[in-house]
Request: fold
Amino acid sequence: MTTEVGPETEVKKESEQLGADAAKEKPEETTESQENIKSEKTLSEEAHGSPSSPALASQSSPSSQKKEKDLSEGKGISRFIPPWLKKQKSYSLVEPKDEAKKKVVEEGQAVEKSECQLPEEVAQPEGNLEKATAESQQEAKADDKEEEKHSVSSADTQPAKEDSKETEVEKVSEEQEEKQKVEGKRETKEVQTTEIKMEKAPKKIKTVQCKVMLLDGTEYSCDLEKRAKGQVLFDKVCGQLNLLEKDYFGLLFRDNSDQKNWLDSSKEIKRQIRSLPWLFTFNVKFYPPDPSQLTEDITRYFLCLQLRQDIASGRLPCSFVTHALLGSYTLQAELGDYDPEEHNNDYISEFQFAPSQSKEMEEKVVELHKTHRGLTPAQADSHFLENAKRLSMYGVDLHHAKDSEGVDIMLGVCANGLLIYKDRLRINRFAWPKILKISYKRSNFYIKVRPAELEQFESTIGFKLPNHRAAKRLWKVCVEHHAFYRLVSPEQPPKAKFLTLGSKFRYSGRTQAQTRQASNLIDRPAPYFERTSSKRVSRSLDGAPVGITDQSLLRDFSATTVGPAGDVVFDSEAVDQAKLKDGERRDEDGSPTKTPQLELTQDEKDLDKTQDDLLKHQASISELKRNFMESTPEPRPNEWEKRRITPLSLQTQGSSHETLNVVEEKKQAEVGIEETVVIDEINRGKMQAVTDAGETRKVEHLSKKDSSSSSDSSSSSESEDELVGEYQPHHRVTEDIIREEQEENEDAKGKKECATKIIQSVETLQEGSKVKVTVEHTQVTAKALAQKNAVAIETGEKNVMEEGKQDPREENEEEQLKINGDVSHVDIDVASQIICCSEPPVVKTEMVTISDATQRTEISTKEVPIVQTETKTITYESPQFDGSAGGDAGVLLSAQTITSESVSTTTTTHITKTVKGGVSETRIEKRIVITGDADIDHDQALAQAIKEAKEQHPDMSVTRVVVHKETELAEEGEE
Amino acid sequence: MAGLGMGGGGGSSSSLGRCSHAVVRALPESLCQHALRREKGTEVDFARAEREHQLYVGVLKGKLGLQVLELPADESLPDCVFVEDVAVVCEETALLTRPGAPSRRKEVDAMKKALESLNLNIVEMTDENATLDGGDVLFTGREFFVGLSKRTNQRGAEILADTFKDYAVSTVTVYDSLHLKSFCSMAGPNLIAIGSTEAAQKALKTMQQMSDHRYDKLTVPDDAAANCVYLNIPGKGHVLLHRAPEEYPESAKVFEKLKDHMLIPIANTEMEKVDGLLTCCSVFINKTSEL
Reply:
């Protein structure tokens, strides 16, 4: 393959690069990964230029052409290659995106070229494969003009590989797009590893047949690479439907308990559906509040189809009159003007307008149909929607629940917020702006609500869901709805990190605002489409096809339930992140005691609006890498930055310095059971830690006057991640409690004495057979502290003396350092803090500093030292805890979680500071999750992880190692 | 269903107050002695009450041109003049209620006949556990609020919600008043007239929280004056029947600030002694010529 692409005019720069890379790669069969990376980068860069996927496709096409030329020699060989290879190619072609038109056109002009278009993306990855293969494939492409048909047909390993690679490439590119900055090195690493792994385990890659029930009642089937992400399928379906405004839609699958789950487009399908059949339903996910603002009639048409289903099934209740009116518009749209000769009395009974439809209703429908004469189908659809959108249950996603008193209620999630129903009556409503936080723990779902006008305190309202899954589903739906409808345009850069985060889950897609913007750019002649008779729909309803069946009012609509075990835990972290984003975090909770969780509310920023999940994930990943590789300041709230003294670099785990980011890889694998397990472990750990802390404190107390106690660790990621190759689901969670820290510091000063406790735990999780190892290091560093104090004292004094206010910040910074994982530094910092405390003169500041958390702080200060339990723990565990914690009067000053990840390991560091009375305690718990295929040497990985942990915290010792194995079966299990 | 797109599905608020017909009922003499009342007070002057009522009906009929169905009084039903409580009509559907006061249950029969004559879809509340007084039902044009009071219970509200499925039905607990509409009513599309008492304001807050829609409010000093009758009559525009300045001068001043409305002050002193307010004495129906 020659590298010279120059001659070809059509080729764009990027494409050239790609082509060149590809060419190079081919020769070197070994280390394509790097090459690939490069190529990927290029792609991504290209992508930058062009926001929309189509652009990508188009660009890529030229490059592919080049390739083809290069490969042209190989054609001869290709003939001998089995057909599936060819098909595969075609797949790749199709894959790129829904742009059927472009493809077609290109094909028409030059078959070879057109076929290659997308492939180039593939081609790069192909480099790995033998030249012959690649060539043959390409040729195959050329040969098949029907590529689209085959689109996903690849059934064998090699092709599969390619596909997977392709996907990755896309991801990368997208990710880069999003970020705009290319962090080549890190990304490269990722990619490389991934690919390599993939190659190692080619067997796993297979294609599966997928069936999707469309809204018109027809079934679409296609072959998908087994490890394809939801996005791939969704794009295919939308392509098939010729639908551009697709952000309102989604794919549903039914789990074993017949609950509907939204397929997460950013995750592998397989992981979400597990052993379920590859059977999906294409549905409206976000009902546009004003359908007239949709750009295309075809979009409105699909919305109409959805609503007809909703109405006929009873999910969308309406009155007799409305049934008749909507039915009449349906007739007008599908049959045109009423024709007395053609439309006899029976024509209507083939349609289903209502769950139960009487003769009377049909007569009314006909009567109204007659009045619609002259309306075009599109107009009839518009009238239909104008009436349907006013229905009170339009776009409301209902979930069964019980209130605090055990009364059956329904929670309805809609564009404006959360509605509470008892029977059919609305008994309460919480608009999104009113909600500060949304969380779930076990089977409980909580919302934290802003204080009412005259009230000072926020209130948290809990609901009991049937089970953990239901709670999580509801939570996800809330997260997504809030993001979609409320967030206008999340800030990209800072958000990029957080996008993915939510401990587990965040809406990955475009917000309504974004999709509207995008829609405005749609520039194509109104696509032709056939309106299928709704007769069919009604039949399908009868037959209870997937997804159509409805259960009374309940529309279960939940996002993928399968979450990582640690979801709950993460939630808290997520919340923190959100806070960080806003910069308001402090405002909201001064009380660490409360359950940390996602705070959807105020900040519209926090949630991401990224268009593609993949992008987001990638972005987050890259950022992570960036963070720890460069130790650059992360986008954080200003406060953080101010406080940050020195960037710490974590090598191995690459934790973001001061930032506490938890990177999670969620796997579906982690189902309830596992979750529980994980949590339990965490809890134990916490508990132990707490206990220890308590003891320690006591001791110290006795010996000294006071102590600072830190405790607590939050469990972080339970992430049982996906195979190594996939970084996609990375969630970063950061918990910062700056204010709290400040307070703590002050308190500490006042008390003069402190004890530092550091607990580290290392956990290893492995996938195929997941092994979780938890190592806990617990140490009381009183001695060290003393020494350090001496050292630190000077600084501390200065701070205190010179700048009363700033002191806290600095202290915070110190704390941050600790967080980062540099034990030594941390200690010193601590010492400084301590010093401040020890110095009487300084002490005065204490009371002053307390700001938001004031109440607690004050209490803590004044009151007898109480061992502060890990608030977090409480939170995760059970709601009751919170109460108890409050009772304790202990104050959790800060809880931070830092997550870093490398190829196969994810390290989460939780640092918790607690102050009670005058005692403050800092506890650091590390959890390392190793995820990987059988290919990974778990033992080695574990050893490495421990080693690294020790290096980082020389003073620490490993006190506990917990090995947790996760098998797929286990994962599936849940409540 | 004349207008395209306007007929069904949660009609828009602009259709609020549209009406062609009204149902009223003459007052029986037994009202003076036997009508239910929350507090004993001065005796009802029947003659004056009758005059006031005739004036009220006269406005509907003569001034506004509505077709008014006047049901005869029934001496055995002292409260029968308060027709609002026995039927809730929205668009083409009428819900015949099961009044919270057992002595009033039979009032429904005459109303049923009247509404049947108008060809409405009639739903009867037969559940013996359900009670609902129309005075507890506030329809804003976009949604219903149902007061949970001594006269109306949860079950009654549920049945109302089942009857009018297009609309959200939110419940509001009513304290210290007979009905939800004892201190509020619609004074225009999107405009809620509300009394000034703490209970009234609290109820308004609840309603505001429960609604996806933001309503304007018209606060009047007197709770009873907040009960007014808004109508939207073709050719007349916004029409508001409100309590006369002689009765509630301060509140009347507030109403007088509504420049877009045709304001019609109406005295209701006698009926108020037995908890009757302006909305209590009529049920409005909007029939289009088609049907």
